[in-house]
Amino acid sequence: QGALSNLKTFRADQKLKQATFAFIASQLLSKSEKEHLSKIFKAIDKNGDGKLSKEEIYDGYEDYFGKHLEKGDIDKMFDAVDTDKSGFIDYSEFVVASMNEKTL
């Protein structure tokens, strides 16, 4: 439920931290949690290309939470979550950012 809200606050300070979280996330997430995140990702990924654009995040946040997300917030989210600076959030970045950092 908090997957997209956690995207707003996630900070990837360094690639090692991101890689470590990705590994831990893969170990900690139950099958149902993985399926839930996959379902959310696929629902937001409107064109099915396996990555989320700023527009898809904007629309998906509104669809999922029923709230409007400011463009500036999306830019901040991408600065923090798009660790490879591709201009998109790929699935691994989404999973790591969606997990509550406090859980790890």
Question: What's the SSE blueprint?
Answer:
Elements: H1 3-9, H2 15-28, H3 31-44, E1 51-52, H4 54-65, H5 71-81, E2 89-90, H6 91-98
Helix pairs in contact: 1-6, 2-6, 3-6
Give a written overview of the molecule.
With 104 residues, the chain is mainly alpha-helical. The protein is 63% helix and 4% strand. It has helices at 3-9, 15-28, 31-44, 54-65, 71-81, 91-98, and strands at 51-52, 89-90. A two-stranded antiparallel sheet has the order 1-2. The radius of gyration is 13 Å and the shape is globular. The model has no long low-confidence stretch (mean pLDDT 81).
Evaluate the radius of gyration.
Answer: 13 Å
Q: Share of helix among residues?
A: 55-70%
Structural class: mainly alpha
* Overall mean confidence score, pLDDT: 81
Distance between the amino and carboxyl termini: 17 Å
Question: What is the number of E strands?
Answer: 2
Major sheet size, sense and barrel closure: 2 strands, antiparallel
Order of helices and strands: HHHEHHEH
Structural shape: globular
Name the poorly predicted regions: none
The fraction of residues in strands falls at: under 5%
**What is the number of helices?**
6
Sequence of strands across the biggest β-sheet = 1-2
